[in-house]
Amino acid sequence: MNLAHSAWISAVLLVAAAASPGCSRSSQHAGAEDRAAAESTPAATTKAPTVGDAAPGFKLRGSDGKTYTLADFADRMVVLEWFNKDCPTCIRQSDVIKATATALAKKGVAWLAIDSSHYRKAAENTAYANEHKLPYPILEDFDGRVGKSYGVLVTPHLFVIRKGRIEYSGAILRVAEERNYVQEAVDALLAGETPPLPTTRAYG
Q1: Which residues pair with 169 in a beta bridge?
Q2: Do 57 and 69 contact (CB within 8 A), yes or no?
Q3: How far is CA 47 from CA 96, 149, 150, 152, in A?
Q4: Cis peptide before 195 (omega within 30 of 0)
Q5: How far apart are CA 121 and CA 142, in angstroms?
């Protein structure tokens, strides 16, 4: 989901604090562009942290009623998934995202979804998480400040963080190759290696 195509982009541009990621209308139809979008070229963003940088901290309430901070995971690897339940790309990739989160949890890796949609109500995400039996919480970033601090412009956009630093940033997979970039990155890090593709282009 692309901010530039959201109905409320004008408000976002006028009020920087409300920089909430969304899905582009074109992403409602999967096709060649969607399948090829996750090339290994980083998306152009300004003042956004990149791989190797310290991950911006946060303190957010989750759909389970608990409060989460990045510092809670200082001793664990954690995946952050920018999420919007209305995003067609998030919907199409929901099964692989849920399966990846479940598999990585068995390896001690935490997973947190973050919703930076300014129009969202907390109860909506709580209901969604319960209905879909998500094995992770959806955190509330409804003013978009955390999303902005990470330079997030689309959903889904995922980050793998280890010891407070960003080790991977981008899409979860390239559909054409059925290649799971997040799984690859985490497996490499657990093996003491560098992710084969530390940065890919998030698309939505």
Answers
A1: 159, 199
A2: yes
A3: 30, 8, 9, 11
A4: no
A5: 8
Name, in order, each residue with C-beta under 8 angstroms of 161's C-beta and a sequence gap of 6 or more. Answer: 55, 70, 73, 77, 78, 79, 80, 167
Indicate if the alpha-carbon torsion angle 37, 34, 6, 141 is positive or negative: negative
Provide the pLDDT for residue 40. Answer: 40
Q: What is the dihedral of CA 58, 61, 67, 71, to 10 degrees?
A: -20
pLDDT of residue 129: 97
With 0-12 / 13-18 / 19 or more C-beta atoms within 10 angstroms meaning exposed / middle / buried, residue 77 is buried
Determine how β-strand 173-174 pairs with β-strand 179-180: antiparallel
How far is CA 109 from each of CA 62, 131, 136, 147, rounded to the nearest angstrom?
18, 23, 11, 21
pLDDT single digits (tens) 97-108? 999 999 999 999
Residues of the chain falling short of pLDDT 70: 1-46, 176
pLDDT of residue 174: 81
The 10 Å Cβ neighbour count of residue 179 is 16
Provide the strand spans (E) within the chain. Answer: 59-61, 67-69, 78-82, 110-115, 138-140, 157-162, 165-170, 173-174, 179-180
- Nearest-angstrom CA–CA distance, 145 and 113: 15
Domains, the chain, ordered by start: 3-190 (3.40.30.10)
- Answer whether 158's CB lies under 8 Å from 43's CB: no
